[in-house]
Amino acid sequence: MTDLRTSFAGIRSPNPFWLASAPPTDKAYNVVRAFKAGWGGVVWKTLGEDPPIVNVSGPRYGAIHGADRRVIGFNNIELITDRPLDVNLREIKELKRDWPGRAIVVSLMVPCEEKNWAAIIKRVEETDADGIELNFGCPHGMSERGMGAAVGQVPGYIEMVTRWCKAHSRMPVIVKLTPNVASILPPAEACLRGGADAVSLINTVNALMGVDIDLMAPWPHLDGLGTHGGMCGSVVKPIALNMVAAIARHPATSALPVSGIGGIEKWRDAAEFMALGARNIQVCTAAMLYGFKIVEEMIAGLSEWMDQKGYARVDDFVGKAAPRMTEWQHLNLDYVVKARIDQDLCIKCGRCHIGCEDTSHQAITSMKDGRRHFEVIEEECVGCNLCALVCPVENCITMVPLQEGEIDRRTGLKVGGHRTWLEHPNNPLAVDPKPAKYAGD
Amino acid sequence: MLDRSFGGATLGNDAGGHLAANRISAEQCRENFKDLQPPLDSNQARVAAERCLFCYDAPCVTACPTSIDIPLFIRQIAGGQPVAAARAILDANVMGAMCARVCPTENLCEGACVRETAESQAVEIGRLQRFATDAAFASGRQFYRAGPPTGRHVAVVGAGPAGLACAHALARAGHQVTIYEARDKGGGLNEYGIAAYKTNDDIAQRELAYILDVGGIHMEYGKTLGRDFTLASLQAGHDAVFLGLGLGDTNGLGLGEPPEGVVDAVDFIATLRQATDKTAVPVGNNVLVIGGGMTAIDAATQAKLLGAECVTIVYRRAKTAMPASQYEQAVAQVRGVLIRENLMPAAIESRDGMVSGVTFEPTRSDGGRLIGTGERVTLAADHVLTAIGQVLRGTDLAGSGLALEKGRIAVDAERRTSLPGVWAGGDCVAGGSDLTVAAVEDGKKAAASIIAALAAMAAVAPLRAGA
Predict the structure, then answer these.
(1) In terms of domains, do B287 and B413 share one?
(2) Cα separation values, B445 from B89, B148, B169, B240, B430, Å
(3) CATH number of B54's domain
């Protein structure tokens, strides 16, 4: 039986699935429903100073839909909580009393003055919440007022505010990072210098969801004007994974606990984040799209997979994939794969052919002996994976590695050896170029 | 004279059986005859459209007799442009609206769809085609105009799918067209020969109006070949002639003069289609439909929908050999029509001049040859609809000298007949599949050939005097 209990920056929860600071955690009513549904913890919707901010009373959200009208990208221009601080703090205190076994972390965002942070932290501590999360991530609205992503984009500010918070709090301090930076490493290192106990990422990505080409205005718009928002949902998962991996494998930041956020919808998404080093995960969009019940699939799916793999505890697999993430220059240029089409599974849609024919390497037939037939021409195939990705049938097209000593029919050369770009003779900067293993055969 | 498969009892209620109108209420009639497949709303259409994989050299296009660019029009629907999608459809098949409703798609485009292969669930091409063409008709957009006049004049006989498709293409090329139509309405079988629940909202006439709106096509209604004019007179008065006659006659049972209550299914369907009040069309309580094609299905299903208690299709071969597709058979069956196979009509039973049943001889197939077993089975009936095939009407082409093949007009790949200057297409030509979509393709092919021939003629022959 697997044990899903986690301890994140010293905060215990019965499972690694937390709700991220966002509309689902804005008030007690929602959070009670979430706890009843099984969520291990919540990060309360970001608190600010009174008087409360004012939200727009028009569309806060936009979306991009995939086939079947599923939302694959979601966008918001909502601000932090618009409820009085007192009300939020009272509810947090009551909930922590009623649900002592669940994690309650409080997200915070106040102006960049030490006294402001000290004041709000003092009040949060009175709730017995488990920790605080510094919202340095929201890219819209609040950033125009010098908060949110405006802090998260300047490592010096991150370090400064984090240090204040550590100085004024007995609680663990998690810093939530914005992806709207050239590299996530300087912000992560700033968190470390400031003494952060952990980081959570990613917050939303700067985005404009569409254009109303009748009105000639951004979509969605409010009274004719639009503004950029923060995008989340499935489409941002790859951005988040890359950033989590960057922190996990950088020597200076690899020890920093990471809470993974970004497009997590099912257990496998969570497992992927955790394999790259996230010690727990946070979810918002999927809950907004499908309701809190989705956590049941996450818990059951992760448990089942861990059972199958023999992982007794979450820590047994956290970070296991991170060491295999590297730079391009370390990839093996002597490794050769070829696409292979399973003719029994092929439904003859021809998508592999036309993609390869029009845009790539002309390596897939469309006819054979006068019949519609799609087959890889190994002499042309560079193993790029395009055909396998466009194929609508799972596992119909697979990428098969050539074995040591086999002839690559594209180059006519024997396959084998291991050379990276750093060792490749074509690299003018190679210090010690290596010849091909089978050169001269 | 026992029906052994029903435990010795003759099937149906022959006591008190008679033809009667008003078996159902007006409300029930509306419910029964509503769309067989309801139109997709815009969200349903988008979801259905996004299932299309946009195949390369798509099998559905290959399977369509008119080669509609199906992946393209579906992508246009997915892109929110159904009217543009309609243009892609109508460019290839000007009767795309009707074909969307009546094509046996499970044997054509949808049967070839790779998602049928992958998931036994084809993309709903027919319904999407209807969505697009409905949108175009609703928009009032006319995509086509008659071309600059060439001074050439073509006669088209028959305003069915073949004739209309041919006339439309000729008009677009600038040729003046006169269509001679025996009935007082155009559309051919689309107007007279297809079940009402597939042709709601007067679609046949709306499509006809759209086609004629191109301009340059003159209609002569009530003009019958062989009665009001001859092929020779058409040839003399026009630069080319296209024959889209259809099949004006039906096969009889060949069992003597039928008693009252034995009706041609084609006439029954036409009557129902033309009725302003369908409930007023008389139908028996115990109906036998003899035949195995689409006409049999449409007649039987509609008889059931009109309130007949018991409707049975009787086919002389096995069900699997029925020309009607499995989907069409199911349409009839789920509405309560019974299909009986391997029974060949042997005698019509009557009482007081009214039909009372049909006696059949059971059959079996021996290497494709149908063999009667010599036994007899009688099924009671108060209404018998015969749907055992349509044939060219003898008077249509008498003395014309046109070469026939298997009782229909012989044509080449360009739909040229044996007579110079005379083309033909649709059900009246040999080798056809008796489908609207195939007739449209015949019309298109013939028009292309006529246009080429007239262009060649322009180089050598002067315009006809007075043209």
Answers:
(1) no
(2) 17, 21, 10, 14, 15
(3) 1.10.1060.10
Report how many domains make up chain B. 3
**Nearest one of B388, B433, B450 to B161, comparing CA atoms:** B433
Contacts of B57 in chain A (CB under 8 A): 350, 366, 372
Q: Chain A residues with CB inside 8 Å of B51's CB?
A: 67
For B50, nearest residue in chain A (alpha carbons): A67
* B129 part of a folded domain: yes
Residues B166 and B210 in one domain: yes
Please state whether beta strands A173-176 and A131-135 pair in parallel, antiparallel, or not at all (unpaired).
parallel
Predicted confidence (pLDDT) per residue in B287-340, tens digit: 999 999 999 999 999 999 999 999 999 999 999 999 998 999 999 999 999 999
pLDDT given at position A339:
98
- What's the pLDDT tens digit per position in B196-236? 999 999 999 999 999 999 999 999 999 999 999 999 999 99
Task: Kindly state the helix (H) or strand (E) to which residue A18 belongs, with its residue range.
Answer: strand A17-19
Residue B298 maps to which CATH number? 3.50.50.60
Q: Which residues of A touch B50 (CB under 8 A)?
A: 67-68
> Across the interface, do B59 and A348 touch by the CB < 8 Å criterion?
yes
For residues A24 and B172, what is the distance between their CA atoms, to the nearest angstrom? 61
Please tell me whether residues B384 and B445 are part of one structural domain. no
Is A372 in Cβ contact with B56 (below 8 Å)? Answer: no
E strand intervals along B151-269: 153-157, 176-181, 217-221, 240-243, 249-250, 262-264
Partners of A351 on chain B (C-beta within 8 Å) are 53-56
B343 within a domain of the structure (yes/no): yes
- Closest-CA residue in chain A for B43? A69
Å from B116 to nearest chain A CA? 9
Q: Do B114 and A354 touch (CB under 8 A)?
A: no
Q: Is A353's CB within 8 Å of B56's CB?
A: yes
Contact B54 A351 (CB under 8 A): yes
Chain A residues with CB under 8 Å of a chain B CB are: 67-69, 347-351, 353-354, 366, 372, 392-393
ipTM: 0.86
Q: Which residues have C-beta within 8 Å of that of residue B172, sequence separation ≥ 6? A: B144, B145, B146, B147, B214
Together in a domain, B256 and B384: yes
- DSSP 8-state secondary structure symbol assigned to residue B80: T
Of the candidates A208, A207, A261, A263, the residue with the CA atom closest to the CA atom of residue A234: A263
Q: For residue A366, count CB atoms less than 10 angstroms from its CB and return exposed for 0-12, middle for 13-18, buried for 19 or more.
A: middle
Q: Per the domain annotation, does B51 fall within a domain?
A: yes
Domain that holds residue B314: 252-389
Q: Are residues B207 and B237 in the same domain?
A: yes
* pTM over the 0.95 mark: no
In a domain? residue B172: yes
In this structure, the answer to whether residues B369 and B266 fall within a common structural domain is: yes
Contact between residue A238 and residue A76 where contact means Cβ atoms under 8 Å apart: no
- CB-CB under 8 Å, B51 with A348: no
Q: Is some CB atom of chain A closer than 8 A to the CB atom of B6? A: no
For chain A, the helix, strand and coil percentages under 3-state DSSP, each to the nearest 5: 35, 20, 45
Residue at a domain's end among B333, B365, B389: B389
For the annotated catalytic residues of A, the residue numbers are 138
Residue-level pLDDT at B6: 39
pLDDT of residue B4: 40
A68 vs B50, B55, B114: nearest CB:
B50
Which residue is closest to B114 within chain A, CA to CA?
A347
Taking the Cβ of residue B253 and every Cβ of chain A, the question of whether any pair is shorter than 8 Å is answered with no
> Cβ–Cβ of B51/A372 closer than 8 Å?
no
Distance CA A133, CA A169 (A): 12
Going by C-alpha positions, the residue among A201, A309, A210 that lies closest to residue A259 is A201
Dist CA A232 CA A218 (whole Å): 18
CA distance B127 to chain A (A): 17
Q: Are residues B82 and B193 in the same domain?
A: no
